[in-house]
Amino acid sequence: xxxxxxxxxxxxxxxxxxxxxxxxxxxxxxxxxxxxxxxxxxxxxxxxxxxxxxxxxxxxxxxxxxxxxxxxxxxxxxxxxxxxxxxxxxxxxxxxxxxxxxxxxxxxxxxxxxxxxxxxxxxxxxxxxxxxxxxxxxxxxxxxxxxxxxxxxxxxxxxxxxxxxxxxxxxxxxxxxxxxxxxxxxxxxxxxxxxxxxxxxxxxxxxxxxxxxxxxxxxxxxxxxxxxxxxxxxxxxxxxxxxxxxxxxxxxxxxxxxxxxxxxxxxxxxxxxxxxxxxxxxxx
Length: 284
Known about the structure:
By secondary structure, the chain is mostly helical. Helices cover 70% and strands 0% of the residues. The model is unreliable at 272-284 (pLDDT under 50).
């Protein structure tokens, strides 16, 4: 595949294309209508767009074709969906955009959002979030589950969307722009601890794939590989992508959070936790 064909969907998904289009439309409309004082700067806008485009590219271009027929490309796909894309989107701080649309929700419809808000609080729990973040990686890379997912169109899409949505939730918890000094956002120390904790099991899984003597994922033997690459090399590269980049993302995240914590240190007066939680500043 080359040229324009490389940008066309290999497995056309109306739901996926519609979802990405709606995200960009809602983001663009909010930028045009919101007050200039609340509007994100050019750097944040570019960061958001790049994150969204990267996620779209690995799901609805020729990249998706190669990810179904090469293990290491598949691991690159999930690296973007679970880490790189969500990190960029979270760092772009789309909170003003969400607030803009939140104010547009009619009062009568707000009670219907209660189940969504409850689910969100559960998924953002500092115990649930890292377990789910790592657990999904292990689940979809279980040899039997992975074999079925790569041969079933429905399971394949569920796998990719679950990785993307979980990545967005986890990295938003980590890079939540609200300061824990004046809101109920997760503390910076806890965020750094979570990043360190999720790095270890991912490194172990990647190392297990790299040092496995036999073929762990034989589904690529059944379907055939897109390129004449030795199966052992394909598995080795996939294992390295599971091992090293996620660990580097955790280190990068820790550095970003550490910098943010140092920047805010001393800016806010120390208050008892009970006073902070009872404060009106808790509202997002």
